[in-house]
Amino acid sequence: MSNEVIIKNAVKRYGDFTALSDVSLHIKEGEFFTLLGPSGCGKTTLLRMIAGFNSIEGGDFYFGDRRINDVPAHKRDIGMVFQNYAIFPHLTVEENVAYGLKARGVKKSEIDERVKEALELVQILPLAKRKPSELSGGQQQRVALARAFVIEPSVLLMDEPLSNLDAKLRVQMRSIIKKLQRRLGITTIYVTHDQEEALAISDRIAVMNLGKVMQIGTPTDIYAKPENPFVAGFIGVSNFLNCEVTKCEADSARVSIKGELDIDIPVRRTYTGKAKISARPEQLFFSEKGMPGKVLFSTFLGDFIEYEVELDDGQMLIINEYTKDTTDVHEVGEKVHISFDAARISLYDDAEEVLSK
Known about the structure:
With 357 residues, the protein is of the alpha+beta class. It has 8 helices and 19 strands. The strands form 4 sheets. Strands 6-7-8-3-9-10 form a 6-stranded mixed β-sheet, sandwiched between helices. Strands 13-12-11-14-19 form a 5-stranded antiparallel β-sheet. It has a 4-stranded antiparallel β-sheet with strand order 2-1-4-5, with helices on one face. α3 crosses α4 (137-149) and α4 (137-149) runs parallel beside α5. The chain starts with a strand and ends in an 8-residue tail after the last strand.
């Protein structure tokens, strides 16, 4: 039976260093929830606290209505998939997958049936009699997956499970993982530093930095509506420009960008003063009027052309122009003007708190 996971005000310290500070999460039953952030942000530390591998210096952890702070790791009913697979080299594929079931005292006839089903799900049943040394990295990872979910855990924890695979295999495996998770309905908490992986695989994402949660949301929310400049910069590509909110009435702010372009941006609260814009490459466009600059470089990428444009003050911008929307190609050295999709860009006040809707 899958469980929701509730974390209230979690704190983790190593001596004088605070690795996690007041982290709270509510992960829904059956949800695929990803902890995303740069190295050292605290995501693996938090996962290990959920698993029972790390001590808890503050806060409360629940699986459903069961507080697990003092429950030993082996009694938390979790499945775990590690970065290095952690499968037993002396056991065959089917013996590795059966290991957790044997430890739980499941009958042999049921073990055989469940192991076969698990191996079929990850599409390696023909490899059942092989040892790990006879498998590729992707096949070993499938063994680790099958071993984790065959015990039907309340919560499945995955720590950078695809980081040791090549790029093409990572894409294949993340698709397999997501399809398996949806089919089985197991509450899954997934740790990665790969933004594309997180966007592709998750129901919701918690972006972390310096031991704190910066934003929680769906992949669409995280990408399209970043709550602060860190999230905007960490997820995908963003162009940042300093600006000033010169006028703000009701739900609209007049924003002056470098004194060269004024635009009206929908906002959630009133504010005037220094501010900052973040704009994705597809939220910029070439126009007859706008901020002047010149094309320094262009890269044809099939669906779109990526341009590097230098503004008159020397700042660089990245702009994507989709080939389905235009037949013109801007040449290197060409003088251009840049404008913004005001309804989609993000605006932050001087304290880097979001203003835009």
